[in-house]
Design a protein that fits this description.
Spore Coat Polysaccharide Biosynthesis Protein SpsA, Chain A, single chain, alpha/beta, 2 domains, nine-stranded mixed β-sheet, about 300 residues, two-stranded antiparallel ribbon
């Protein structure tokens, strides 16, 4: 019987009508210096030339796995990719971004050398005229602090330890669609430590067609639902109204301000101007306690 050779990394890339940027995104993966991977492209019912583009790459590179399905949405496509992934590590990638050539090499080395870590992301640059460099939180304590209210990872930068997903039976959940990645990180935080590499391993494209631009209201509602669930698990009780005030103060009648938590972890918010909003101060005080404890107990502090 012929021995089946499994790849070290499985790359999961969902795509729907991605013809404009897909070639560049796929090429940036297939040109990685670390070559032991499979690229699973979940074609979610595309009606443009996406299918032809993926087929071109599939013909010329055996690492490309082209999966076509009827349009079912990004959560379905992502979970299909997770089900098919065979690698020790799962790398996420979007069909409109560009990977740094050393991305997989750097992340695999980190996860191999730090076996207590289950998710590893990175800094990234914005594609476009600004070319802005975006710094992400370093080490487990800083990641967990940010995870109290929003994602500590840029989704297409992450590499996940497959065993952590299996151990928790963790998947993307449809009820959190548009914030499905944030919800997954809160679950995986129970399986091990979190970290971001201090270099830009991805160029992230910002455009009007993205979910974050076109579905902002429903994304906020589901983001809040995921955050409140996570905070509740950690012993912090907060209502949806309170959380919206905390994270999206521009929707409320508050004065401007910035609150600093833990070791320089910044939480942007508006300072309350009315006595009845004292409940928010209680939430922040509880968050400070959680962050302080995380900083004291984490073995990830000091990683760069």
């Amino acid at each position: 019987m012929e021995k089946v050779i499994t790849p070290v990394v499985s790359v999961v890339m969902p795509v729907y009508n991605g013809e404009e940027y897909l070639r560049e995104a796929m090429a940036s993966i297939l040109n990685q210096t670390f070559e032991d991977f499979e690229l699973i492209v979940i074609n979610d019912g595309s009606t443009d030339s996406t299918t032809d583009i993926v087929y071109e790459f599939e013909k010329n590179d055996s690492r490309v796995v082209h999966i076509r399905q009827e349009n079912a949405g990004i959560v379905s496509a992502l979970n299909r990719g997770l089900e098919l992934a065979r690698g020790d590590y799962i790398a996420r990638m979007d069909a409109d971004d560009i990977c740094h050539p050393e991305r997989f090499a750097v992340q695999v080395e980190f996860l191999r050398n730090n076996r207590d870590y289950v998710v590893c992301g990175s800094d990234y640059e914005l594609l476009g005229a600004s070319g802005e460099y975006v710094r992400t939180p370093r080490g487990d304590a800083a990641c967990r602090a940010k995870l109290l209210y929003e994602s500590c990872f840029a989704h297409p930068t992450v590499m996940i330890r497959s065993s952590a997903l299996r151990d928790l039976a963790a998947r993307y959940e449809a009820e959190f669609q548009y914030a499905e990645d944030y919800q997954l990180w809160t679950k995986l935080s129970h399986a091990g430590l979190l970290h971001n590499i201090g270099m830009a391993l991805l160029k992230y494209r910002v455009h009007a067609a993205q979910i974050s631009s076109s579905k902002k209201q429903i994304q906020r509602e589901r983001h809040a639902k995921a955050a409140i669930s996570h905070l509740t698990e950690m012993g912090v009780e907060v209502t949806g109204e309170q959380f919206h005030t905390l994270l999206w103060p521009e929707l409320n009648s508050f004065l401007g301000g910035v609150l600093y938590l833990g070791k320089g972890v910044k939480l942007s918010c508006k300072l309350v101007s009315r006595a009845q909003d004292a409940r928010m101060y209680l939430l922040m005080a509880l968050a400070k306690v959680l962050i302080r404890n995380a900083v004291k107990s984490s073995i990830g502090v000091g990683l760069r």
